[in-house]
Amino acid sequence: MIIKDEKKILNIIKNLNQSPHTAVSEFSEEINKISSEQGIQAAYSHLLRAEVILNLRKPSLAIYDHSFHFIGGAQKYGLTLLSVLQNQFDITILANKKVSHEDFLSWYHLDLSKCKIKVLKLPYFEERKIIHFDPACISKKVKNPFHLMSKESGNYDIFVNNSMNEMVYPLSNISVMVCHFPERRPKNYFYADQYTYIVYNSKYTAEWIAKKWKFSPHQHIYPPVDMEADMSQFQKKKILLSVARYEVEGTKRQQEMIETFLKLNQIYPEIVKGWKFILVGGSNPKNPYLSRLKDILSKNPDKNIELKINVSIQELKSLYQESTLFWHMCGLLHNDPSEIEHFGMTIVEAMQNKMVPVVYDGGGPREIVDHGVNGFRVQTKAEFAECSIKLLKDQKLIQKLSESAQKKAQMYSKKKFEERVKVFFTKLLQIYSPQ
Amino acid sequence: MEDKTVKELQRLKKEIYEKKEEICDIKQLVNKEIDREFHTEIWELSEREFNTFVGEYKRPKNKYPKLKFDMESISSHRKIFGRPVLFIKRILFKLLDTYINENFDKQTLFNRHINASYQALYEELLRRFKQDNEKMRRIRDRISDCEESLVIIMNKLIDLREQDPKDNRFIDTRK
Asked: What number is the ipTM of this complex?
């Protein structure tokens, strides 16, 4: 935010209401002075702020994500944030590829009809016919293709960068970067530290922002998780569930979970008897990792393991409602921080549906699951097997942990998210337009 | 608020917006330098980041550029006497061109040797590193599998012992 001579300019703006004749010329003079000293953008930003302070219009807010044309958790986060703010602000959704209100409605069940959509195509990616924009591939030798968005950011009171793209230089009065994980270290075209506020999704992300970017982020807002259901209508079955994308690199560790289930079946069949392990996840058609998993299953028929690929949201919901235990081992046997779950939305979804999670002890899951209270956190395959056996053998323990899991999951509900967003943006508005 | 004031504000906004739209350079818009140099702390990098970092500094073996003296780089800060000084300097450098470039050629050769050795060293290190890592991973996986089996078997033993305490087949003989 522009704070140079803030008090002086605020007084002049207030005077525009009280003694307009003298104040208008004083204001014009001040704007010209700012323009020559701090650049024309600063002058324009002051004018925008004056309009809001004088109640001439609603404050404007733009949200940018270079991946709005794809379905994703980060995109859902940004758009849910808009659904909360669309009455308070004049909102523009900035995208780089064609996307519509209907898409957002069908992908995320979000009605954003009060928001405008503006598509700004980036010539660098258009010329190369690139659909997945990766800022990491922009070297120093290339002219920053995202400066088109930097320039656009200066036309709004508040600019929200939802894409973790540190190459967009914010020009608005207030700028917010939503960071789900700091992928790159400060390098060419790094402007994350130029944002007024950095919003982070988990303490794990905050820790890595401090390590990689060398500054502390400002505002913690957990992602919205809305998988809650009326559990009284559903009967739990003996189902172990895993919900995670089938990554080509196998980072979600489905293979290890299948191996453990098979081992339990082989050595300890009496406790696994009657239980079914269902793995759900999205995948591209040609996925060697998925083929490997299918191979393992074809060699082990009748072991009660089922792979489900790209299921509908309805099917996923009913699976959550029927299942009892949840396995999530992303991060197991990994050293790279980016390969550990940054938050773990599916874990919360499972907990909202009264499932007991057994998760890898690292990253975001560490703050979601309290070991022995509402689930189990494990660091090795042995611990994973031990905790799973404990649960499979003890129905009372499952009952106890599932109750507290559901209670803990309320912390991450959509309602809580909306409350946090409202509080944060109201605070921003109070600073921006003091009454 | 008076209409006149609102109109004046709108006029001012329009005027500034038009001026702003003519400028494409962000530096010019904010009247300051926006790009900075960042130093990479190599010891902080993860294995993947380190590989990318080193990869960026690698050059194809035979493409190390030949060093040449750049005549354009000679300049003078003197306003009036600068031009004749520059003229004389350029003539001198042209006359000594052969001797200067001879040294540059030697330097280029040396740089190419260093570059080739660095690459060979890097590739060899990477090969060994990958080999060792793979070995380590296999050992780790094996241990992890054994630990897992052990835990399952131990749990089963405890269960069996509880079912029939008199059966001494399931007594822990390690004590």
From this structure: 0.81
